[in-house]
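Notes taken during the Thursday session

The instructor put the following on the board and asked us to keep it in front of us for the whole hour. The protein is DUF4772 domain-containing protein. We were told not to look anything up and to reason only from what is written here. First, the residues (131 in total):
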Amino acid sequence: MSTGKRLAKRSIIGTRVCAPGEDGKYYSGVIQAVKTPANFAENNNCINLTPNTRYTVRFDSRQGNLGRTTCEFFEGNLIGPGFQSVLGLELVKGQKVFVTYNGREVSGEVCKHHSETDEVIIKIQPSGIED
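Then, after some discussion, the predicted structure tokens were revealed:
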């Protein structure tokens, strides 16, 4: 049974990424669509990606009400495979993070990020209590 729509072998659609919310915090989501500019003169690669390519991200619903379910972003705004890494970003107070503590992954909340020393102070949630 075929739907007539086939994703390319290396399609970025469905990739899990983090994107900034209006409050400056990063939220997880999935790339839902890729939009390239109509001007092909600036497209000089075989997959037609340019600096002006926009990615539609569908935010995960379990993060509460962000005021929107989808939004478009440029490549430089996304964190994830094929995009930028978390290195070099400044996390904001209240940002939810996951860290390894005593050999287990636990969630926490950023209290302060000292970007000059790249140290992040977080408050770890008590065991068994997740947001």
